[in-house]
Each structure stands twice: as structure tokens, then as C-alpha cells.
Predict the 3D structure of the following.
Amino acid sequence: MGRKKVVLKRIEDKSSRQVTFSKRRSGLIKKARELSVLCDVEIALFVFSSRGKLYEFSSGNSLSKILDRYQSRFHVEMNESKGLNDIETQLMLESIMGLHEKERMLREEKKLLQRKIRAVQDTKDRTEVVLGLIKHSNNQLAHPPQLETLSLLP
């Protein structure tokens, strides 16, 4: 028969919580030891109980050697990360400056296009006025004013 899935939430019963902690802590240390042996890796494990009691496991000869190794690696990675952050900040600034320049150029191009549109619109308006005048004068020539006659009949 298979095991049921454990719901991961805090165990409310204090006694059950302590039993589970003890069993799981032992299982965790066992797995750390197995990983160390099978894969030839150094492992340091710290567990603090809810009361503050420390449980530790070290796969090597000395826990302090593993901690020193961790701290030196941590400092190296922090310095590398800081250098990468400086480069990223510089690249972002250059990108922002490039975008500002592109925005300025687009604004100038927009102004130029607006001037051209206004010039075309003005030309179109003048053309319409001239065509209107020509049409009006053609209409007057084609239909001269007629003389009005008065009828004197009662």
C-alpha cells in the first residue's frame, strides 16, 4: 500500500511536530552523508530547532574549512557580481542616452513632416480657391445676365 501525500503546512500539535522534526532531521543528515559519499562532495549542514538548539553535519574533516571555503567563494562572487552590475549600469546608461538621441531625432523629423503637411495643405487650399474663381468666371461667361423686362399689362 502506498503512502499518502503529506500536506506541507505547520504541524499544530507540539508533540507530533517534535517527533516529525527529529525524524526528518535524521533523514536529512542521512541523505547529506549519502550524497557526500556517492558524489565525493563536501557538505556542511546546519539545523536550528524552534528552541534554538543547533544540529550540524560536516562531510569533511572540518566544518570550519568548509565555512572558510564558502566565505571566500562568496566574497569572490560578490566582487564579480559587483563588476557585472557596474558594466550593466554602464550599458543601461548608454542605452538610455541612445534612446534620448533617437527621441530627439524623431521629434525633429515630426516637426519637419508637420511643416511639409502644412505646405501641401496650403497649396491645396490655394489651388481650390483658384479653381473656384476659374469656375465662377467660366459660369459668368457662359451665362451672361439677362435683361429683365417689365410687363406693363394690367
User: Anything to note?
Assistant: Residues 62-133 form one domain. Residues 19 and 141 are 114 Å apart (CA to CA). The chain is about 70% helix and 5% strand. The chain has two domains: 15-60, 62-133.
